[in-house]
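Quick one, tokens below. Sequence please?
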């Protein structure tokens, strides 16, 4: 029974990693409101952080 549990745990961990992907949206704001200019799916936590930190002025990256 122990030997069956190990592969199940590994599969569960791999599945969880795939769920870490987020959709990041780049929007440019102005008087008329926000306009979405780019959207991408990002699975790397460092890239998500870099995108959100690169927001400046009216250009904003949000990841969910």
């Amino acid at each position: 029974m122990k030997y069956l549990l190990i592969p199940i745990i590994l599969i569960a961990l791999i599945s969880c990693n795939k769920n870490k992907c987020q959709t990041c949206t780049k929007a440019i704001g102005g008087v008329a409101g926000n306009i979405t200019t780019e959207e991408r799916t990002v699975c790397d936590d460092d890239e998500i952080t870099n995108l959100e930190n690169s927001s400046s002025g009216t250009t904003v990256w949000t990841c969910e």
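The chain has a mean pLDDT of 81. Residues 19 and 63 are 14 Å apart (CA to CA).
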